[in-house]
Design brief:
Blueprint (H helix, E strand, L loop, with lengths): L1 E5 L6 H12 L2 E4 H11 L2 H11 L6 H12 L2 H6 L1 E4 L5 H9 L6 E6 L2 H9 L1 E3 L6 E3 L21 H18 L7 E5 L4 H13 L2 H8 L5 H31 L3 H7 L3 H4 L6 H7 L3 H8 L1
Helix pairs in contact: 1-9, 2-3, 2-4, 3-4, 4-6, 6-8, 7-8
Length: 291
């Protein structure tokens, strides 16, 4: 299985990585560890990366992906599968990863509100002897080791807010490369609840997720499916026009209303009796004859 896990500082990636490695037997790979390992082994890419690290410079993305790809192709990783912890960290690394043909089956994204992350970071304590991480509120250390615990130099509110700003900007540009396989997990809950959610997602069939990740080449098929959509509205529009013709048919009764006006023309005919009144004047002439 090929897994990527990402999340902001203090989101609980370390705890979940440990759980995933135990349950699935994959090889845990973090960028820093891989670069240091390659440099120590004296590989060509490792020595190039060492030059940048020794001079306090950022290792170029193409060099990082080269070292990571070299690690992923090792027999141990090839047979067991891998878990990339916090990689890719930038959109440049994501693009380089895709260009190199390195693909994942699952992408776990831990989500925790910034306010809670600041509280987690500022209360974090580290045991330099065991590298065990404790917290002043949520995971108090035993009394007998309190004297040797230290707080990391960058575990301050000011610095963690800067790191969170950088994380949010980068993750928003990284996710589009893996949007078909990303699974968000609420990391603000208890570790056991987060663990259960992660297991449920990772236990789902990998084959289905691999097909989902191949969504980019399938974009052309998506355009084909749009053709029927254009046709359907057209048919509907014609149908609506047909109803419009029927509406014109309903206007015919209006012509019948004009027919009812014809009786109005007959009214002037009733004036004929007025002519008969003139005829009654004739008897008046007969009266003069009797005189």
């Amino acid at each position: 299985m090929h897994i990527i896990i990402a999340g902001p500082p203090a989101a609980g990636k370390g705890t979940q990585c440990s759980n995933i490695v135990k349950r699935y037997g994959v090889v845990h790979i973090s960028t820093g560890d891989v670069l240091r390992e390659a440099a120590k082994a004296g590989t060509e890419l490792g020595l190039k990366a060492k030059e940048f690290m020794d001079n306090g410079k950022l290792v170029p993305d193409d060099l990082i992906i080269g070292v990571v790809k070299e690690k992923l192709s090792s027999p141990d990783v090839s047979s067991k599968g891998w878990l990339l912890d916090g990689f890719p960290r930038t959109p440049g690394q994501a693009q380089a990863m895709v260009s190199a043909g390195v693909t994942a089956d699952k992408f776990v994204l831990l989500k925790v509100p910034d306010e809670e992350l600041v509280d987690r970071v500022c209360g974090r304590l580290v045991d330099p002897d065991t590298n065990e991480i404790y917290h002043k509120k949520t995971k108090p250390p035993p009394d007998d080791i309190k004297h040797r615990l230290v707080q990391r130099a960058d575990d301050t509110e000011e610095k963690v807010k800067v790191r969170l700003g950088e994380y949010h900007k980068n993750i928003s540009d990284i996710l589009p490369f893996f949007k078909s396989i990303v699974h968000e997990v609420d990391g603000s809950r208890k570790p056991a609840d987060v663990e259960g959610d992660v297991y449920t997602y990772l236990d789902a069939p990998v084959e289905h997720k691999q097909e989902a990740q191949k969504a980019e080449p399938a974009k052309h098929d998506g355009h084909k499916h749009e053709e029927p959509k254009h046709e359907e509205p057209k048919h509907e529009e014609h149908k609506h026009e047909e109803h419009k013709h029927e509406e014109h048919k309903h206007e015919e009764p209006k012509h019948e209303e004009h027919k009812h006006e014809e009786p109005k023309h007959e009214e002037p005919k009733h004036e004929e009796p007025k002519h008969e009144e003139h005829k009654h004047e004739e008897p008046k002439h007969e009266e003069h004859k009797h005189e």
